[in-house]
Amino acid sequence: MRLSDDPELRDRALAAIERSVDRTDRIVPQLLELAAVERPEEDSEQTDLTLMMHETVADLRVLAKGREVKLETAAPDRAVWMRTSPFLLQAAWRNVIEKAIHASPRRARGAVVLDSTTFVIRDEGGGIPPELLDRVRTRFTRGLDSGANGSGLGLSIVASAMQPLNGEVKFGQGRNGEGGRRWN
Asked: Which Pfam family, giving just one, matches this sequence (predicted)?
């Protein structure tokens, strides 16, 4: 392999390689997670939804901090028990919270709310355009705010994880037009 003598060309090529590697680092785990949620083998078990919500948000605080998004949580002061698949439910919650973080502008606030067995995410992103609402759960469908970083797999993972749980996912506009996602 011969390297170019032009330092600007080398820098652009190196930057392109780094972007490609970063994208691969994001998409491969998502593809593996999508395959896992489409073939769930885990049985349901009694799961503390309050604890799961706090653990899931804690896992994503570094991402939120890096994007300067403040995540707030609200949940009952007690355990909320449900018989469910912890793997599937956490995969759905993690992907939608991650999507909300990425959709929010810098220095925004996001809310993760658990009320009994309803889980609500609010973000300050622009929401999902009406023309994408029918397709947003389809693999590789990317929203307008995804930029070059989105793979278009996150919400299809959510939909695939919720299906065997007999759960429901709703997307809508919140107050002032901010995005919102709701699970029952």
From this structure: HATPase_c
Tally helices (H) and strands (E) across the chain.
4, 7
Tell me the pLDDT of the chain averaged across its residues: 79
Q: Is 82 helix (H, G, I), strand (E, B) or coil?
A: strand
Find out whether 170 and 181 touch, Cβ atoms under 8 Å.
yes
110 band by pLDDT with thresholds 50, 70 and 90: confident
- The beta strand positions in 42-124, using DSSP E, are 45-48, 70-74, 81-84, 109-115, 118-122
- Residue with structure tokens 């606030």? 109
What confidence score (pLDDT) does residue 176 get? 52
Look up the pTM and report it.
0.72
The residue with tokens 């901090």 is: 65
